[in-house]
Design a protein that fits this description.
Elements: E1 2-6, H1 16-24, H2 31-36, E2 45-49, E3 55-59, H3 67-71, E4 77-79, E5 85-87, H4 97-101, E6 108-109, E7 118-119, H5 131-135, E8 141-145, H6 146-166
Antiparallel strand pairs: 1-8, 2-3, 4-5, 6-7
Length: 167
């Protein structure tokens, strides 16, 4: 399954990913329209500040064994065969157990809505590439199969290691 991977050395904490996510999940699908929507939109991911003008985008990890899904008594959070953890607002009771259960702290409460709801990454539900990845100006976000990404990084490292040891 493809995942959003982060190259933290490239993240400038510009928040373009958060804005793109909020716009993609708005009714208008435009920045101007999204700003004026009520209730105000929340992004499904957030950028945690780091040192020296850097940051780290955090979004739902769509875990293999999602603790948030286990904790949700109404099945408002549910995992499909595609591995994506989906959220159904109409089933949510507002117990906040998903927020407590998430080991990464990526599920957040929407405090600006009348009824309780949460915001979390949904990988832009079936689009070819999530809007946050497309919007990232430094390509710090990558949408790729984690195993393939890991394999290519290992190969690159081994090639660099072998060429440096020959010198």
């Amino acid at each position: 399954m493809k995942r959003i991977l982060v190259d933290d050395a490239k993240c400038l904490a510009c928040h373009s990913c958060e804005i793109a996510c909020a716009v993609a999940h708005s009714d208008s699908k435009t920045l101007y329209g999204a700003i004026s929507e009520k209730p105000p939109l929340r992004s499904g991911l957030h950028v945690e500040p780091g040192g020296k003008g850097r940051g780290f985008p955090l979004g739902c990890r769509h875990c293999q064994d999602p603790q948030c899904v286990r904790a949700c008594v109404t099945k408002a959070l549910h995992s499909h065969n595609d591995g994506v953890v989906h959220y159904n607002k109409s089933l949510c009771l507002g117990c906040q157990m998903c927020i407590i259960a998430c080991p990464f702290g990526t599920i957040e409460e929407n405090i600006s809505t009348e009824a309780f709801s949460v915001s979390k990454c949904d990988l832009c539900d079936g689009s070819a590439e999530p809007s946050c990845v497309t919007a990232c100006p430094t390509q710090a976000l990558i949408f790729e199969d984690a195993d393939l990404h890991s394999k290519s990084k290992r190969r690159k490292y081994l090639v660099e290691l072998s060429t440096s040891s020959e010198q």
